Amino acid sequence: MGLAAVAGAPWRAIFALLFVLICPGASLVGVLGLRDRLTELVVIAPLSLALVTLTSGSLFYGHAWSLNTEFGLLLGLCTVGLILSQFGRVVRQRGIDD
Questions:
Q1: Is the pTM higher than 0.90?
Q2: Contact 27, 78 (CB under 8 A)
């Protein structure tokens, strides 16, 4: 059982807010190829909020918005971002080694 489910209703909102502010941006910031770690940390929250706004708006105007759909879409974006970040890291390392 997840930590948010055990913690109760007040903590669910806090965990959801932390997920929305951190996870989408943190998973996709590696794709940007920024060199400075501080710059990456600064970009995470605005990138996350922009992604949440774009996905929510798209689902809303497509008459498909629901909490479960939004959460599933954000999880999918996080997964794709992590895969692309890892792929980009491998490509950059191979470019350095060659």
A1: no
A2: yes
